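Dear colleagues,

For the upcoming journal club I promised to circulate an example of a predicted protein-ligand complex. I picked one with iron/sulfur cluster because it came up in last month's discussion. The inputs are reproduced below in full, followed by the predicted structure.
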Amino acid sequence: MESKQQTTCESLVSLAALQERVRCLFRLRQLPEKTRRTILLNTTADKPELGLETRSPKLWMPERVLFTPAALAEPWGQQILERVESLNLPIEELRQNRLTGLRGDSERETYDKSKRTLAVVNAPPSTFKLSPIPPSADWQFHLAEGCPAHCQYCYLAGSLSGPPVIRVFANLPQILANLAAYETSQATSFEVSCYTDPLGIEHLTGSLAECIRYFGTRESGHLRWVSKFDAVDDLLDLPHNGHTRCRLSVNAAPVSGRFEGGTASVTSRLMALRQLALPRSQGGGGYPVGLVIAPIMPVEDWEEHYTRLFDQISDAIAFDCDLTFELISHRFTPGSKEVLQTWYPHTKLDMDESKRSVKRNKFGGTKYVYDPDTMKRLRRFFESEIARRFPKARVLYWT
Ligand code: SF4
């Protein structure tokens, strides 16, 4: 009985795998030639052995693409339209500039609907007044709001309101032109990943590449972005002039495997980082790069799991390059916990306030972080592993 059940399960698994392959091949045929070549190269290129299987680059395909009239009036909006048309995605031109009809009968349904929807809109005037974003960068700006992935700890839950539809901005040239006013004669850094994963939507927008090209022309402006996706080939040849630091966010297997739905595997992210960091003479992008290890969690046997992650990083980046680390321990706010619990009602994410220390900010906001002893132990481990394995790398901050 057991072996019959097992055989049935195996057949179902291989049928599902076959269906997934057919779906992938069909989607591949719809992609522009360059992207298609990238995918094929990525699946066959010579790669270091990182101890885990890699997957093809993760490309999100929305089920609906909405355009507002204002977005369609923008040349950059037209450029996005051409991209989504070439992918045969279902497009709806709205009559008004407001997005409506995104809510379902429950919060979970609203979430499902929204996360399958791309809306191309113009950034509102408020986004032209930039805010500082310590410790990551001097300023933040946005090319989109919302992310197609499904991380159960997602920090966007506490920062964006309304249905989590992925809004991308059609007035990008104006957004970029506005940044010059914030540059000084000193190096000035701009973070573009606070409200989105810019690489996760890049095949639909081309906006990250445009930002990289823009910063490549600046005297003192520097761009920073971070991602959990891996389709970087179209970024490798851009004239970045060393003014963009590309970072990949990684985590230990129990955290990424359990909580990071819809993202590229950590191994694929490391392969992407390797490609970005390799010198141009070796087919890479020659970018300054970074790893954001976040959110760090003291899960069972955490030292062992994070040691394995460092082994993978050492294998992927076994060459000299401009490398930084950012170390962020897990935290949550009352607001983010409430939203995350409606999005992921069955989550196993530990958000028990009684096991945490409270940290208050100057505006009276509350965050729940690990207790001081746990923080000390984690910090000591990460800083010493990095110092030992990557003596030339800089740790930008621990938080
Ligand atoms: S990749 Fe980042 S922004 Fe996207 S769901 Fe995960 S944590 Fe949120």
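Two points we might discuss: The longest helix spans residues 2-30. The CA atoms of residues 146 and 347 lie 20 Å apart.

See you all on Thursday,
B. R.
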